[in-house]
Amino acid sequence: MTKVVLIGSGNVAQHLIKAFEEAKLQGTDVELVQVFSRNPANVTPIISWNLVTSDLNNLKEAHLYIICVSDDAIEAVSAELPFKNRLVVHTSGALPINSLHENNRKGVFYPLQSFTKNKPIVFKQIPICIESENPTDFYLLQKVGKALSDKVIAINTEQRKALHVAAVFANNFTNHLYGIASKICQENQVPFDILAPLIQETAEKIQTLSPNEAQTGPAKRNDQKTIKTHLDFLKEAHQKEIYQLLTQSIQENGKKL
Amino acid sequence: MTKVVLIGSGNVAQHLIKAFEEAKLQGTDVELVQVFSRNPANVTPIISWNLVTSDLNNLKEAHLYIICVSDDAIEAVSAELPFKNRLVVHTSGALPINSLHENNRKGVFYPLQSFTKNKPIVFKQIPICIESENPTDFYLLQKVGKALSDKVIAINTEQRKALHVAAVFANNFTNHLYGIASKICQENQVPFDILAPLIQETAEKIQTLSPNEAQTGPAKRNDQKTIKTHLDFLKEAHQKEIYQLLTQSIQENGKKL
Hints:
The structure is a homodimer. By secondary structure, the first copy, chain A, is an alpha/beta fold. Chain A is built from eight helices and eight strands; from the N terminus they run βαβββαβββαβααααα. The first copy, chain A, has an eight-stranded mixed sheet with strand order 3-2-1-4-5-6-7-8. In chain A, strand 1, helix 1 (11-25) and strand 2 form a beta-alpha-beta unit. The termini of chain A are far apart.
């Protein structure tokens, strides 16, 4: 039985706890034996209270310690752990493996997804990006990853940095564009939800086409008349600037192909 | 029986033809009686050859003529029609109702979706935005729309303009951000497809949350350290500019809330 301790009780930690509970029900050989939380009330609704501790000195012995706290707390928490030479990983897409303290064997266990509080998610489909300092630890992370997800992939610190930047474009910035679209609709008495099937289809297309193949619209076909109409229509300076910059970027990209 | 003639044979026209064929199989009271195409070979794989004409003078009498050609050809095609005072609509999100010629009663029948050649789509879920000059024509467009889709909605020319701009943000620009993410992955030996579940979840979230509620990431939480790391990481000027502008826009937007 591979024993895991989870340190943290925020949004990602809660999704991980549920995924471990799910894996246990499936009869996997991986067990979440303890959760550390400074606010046990965060997690007692989803895991038995006797598995929760708020004292680092009470941490059980385990094969793997997953630090699942905010990026700026990872270093400090890893330094506070009252043991040495065990396998300790963080779950951050943004931080290098070396942000963990030297006291223990380091690794990363990064589930690549945008988690929303209280919104259930099919954890099995979430890619888990793993990294370790040695092959034995890699094997263990792979085993734990596979208990939770169908997609476990080796990603080193440099690759993860690229992936994290790419995720900002594909998730944070994309969502902001939805926000602008929503605002434009609202200001013109158009229900935003009629854009939902288009947004859905746009996301689905890239499962079968590359984004370059899927690109359409006035910028792509250099339809200057429509571009001008749209720029005249937009009143907010920020929206105009974004429209211009992205149009230009689509066109530059087209030239390179 | 409501008779419809479709003028055009491009990508959108082909999806519409399939949707009319589907509606016929469902036993609806709407029938596509003819398709006009300058290149009949475009459509004979999906509709019987004896329903296709390449001569505008051979157009059958019908309750509704749907002009489904590229935006810059709509005006000319509508002027060429050899009859008067019938109901003629276009399918463009970008053009006003008045881009159609005065000879006939005008209307718009705009299916709001990004159609890909040969990629099947559930037409029933596509919002159809309709506009007409008078209530009788509106009723007819509504009937035809409902034969094809579960979502038929009245959208006037001004609203449609807003919707079209919003769709550029939600579809064209979003897809371009996927393209940038894909390029960053490629350049760093990371398979782009591990971002697919994140992209899918981002699109799904706005079905239950507003884009403002769904916004996460370094810009939203004003994580200057990560923002700097990302900007240092990005090499291409365009990518850097887009990163900066969208980060700034997310932060401005946050201040307004």
